Amino acid sequence: MIKQTPYNEEAFKINVRDSYEMLMSHKSSKTSITKGVTGISYTEILQLLCMQASQQYTEKLLRKIYCREAEYIPFHVFRDGVFLACVFIDHVERSQKLFENLDKENTGQIDRAIGDALFRQLQGAVSRKPDDVLGLVEACYELGPNKIYDIVQRIHQAGGSRLIYRKEEFVGKLVDLFLSQIK
């Protein structure tokens, strides 16, 4: 039910609420006062949502938003965790696509200088404060296709480096950057 709509659509919120209520209704009748979904159910939902990502990435996310199995998870925590898992999967997929776009010769590797330059661009963009509107506009510009193309071209013209990134390392670095933003 949760994955029926993209996370950036209004219907997603309704589906998350309905999923939470469904999980609540399947709880044991022994608990007359319901405080929320159990931690084990919450974790299982997050694992299901993250099935497409490698287990290594999923484990990093789950460690970041960990809860105890017997702990009751209120709706706002459930909602935020589900949303975060969906955004996380999107980030992993986009990171993999970025690598594939840079790996034009399908060698399974990219120039480390290009990877590091793009990582610095992303790092600069995510370090902006959300209430800094001008900063967010600048971040969008810095991550735009023309700017990325200029960076790649500049490094190619300079001869690049002999060092490489393999896909797992590059995507892992971008995953770590994403996770570093979760408080």
UniProtKB/TrEMBL annotation:
InterPro entries: TPGS1, TPGS1_C
Pfam families linked: TPGS1_C
Domain Tubulin polyglutamylase complex subunit 1-like C-terminal positions: 4-183
One of the record's GO molecular function terms: microtubule binding
Protein name: DgyrCDS4365
